[in-house]
Amino acid sequence: RAMERVNQLDFEIFIPSHFGYGTKADYQESLEALKYIRSLAREAVKKYTEDGPPVPSQEVAAKIFEEVYLPLKQRYGHWYGFDQAALLMLIRHYVGEEIGY
């Protein structure tokens, strides 16, 4: 919600916590990326852990990773720092789904 509120502000330059700077359009694209990974994580969690434990087995964790990582890599793999941040993003959104964010 906070990022949506920031999106309503009038600004030209976006300076994230990592990887340089960009424009408001870059901010909006990063916001869409976060929404996309959240939707992928939500669907994977629902698909693979609906009746299972909150901490999945290695097999289930690998399936969740593939469900999220592969389409994410296809869409955003060209972004600077993607490979370094992808696993952390996936874990953050998986945990968020599990605890109800």
Structural account:
The chain has helices at residues 2-7, 24-49, 58-76, 82-99; strands spanning 13-14, 22-23. Strand 1 (13-14) and strand 2 (22-23) form a beta hairpin. By secondary structure, the chain is mainly α. 11% of the residues are buried. A two-stranded antiparallel sheet has the order 1-2. It is elongated, with a radius of gyration of 15 Å.
Give the structure's gist in a few sentences.
With 101 residues, this protein is mainly alpha-helical. The protein is 68% helix and 4% strand. The mean pLDDT is 84.
H and E order: HEEHHH
Secondary-structure content class: mainly alpha
Note the total helix count.
Answer: 4
Q: How many distinct beta strands?
A: 2
Notable features of this structure?
101 residues; mainly alpha; 4 helices; 68% helix; elongated
Explain the layout of strands and helices.
Elements: H1 2-7, E1 13-14, E2 22-23, H2 24-49, H3 58-76, H4 82-99
Antiparallel strand pairs: 1-2
Helix pairs in contact: 2-3, 2-4, 3-4
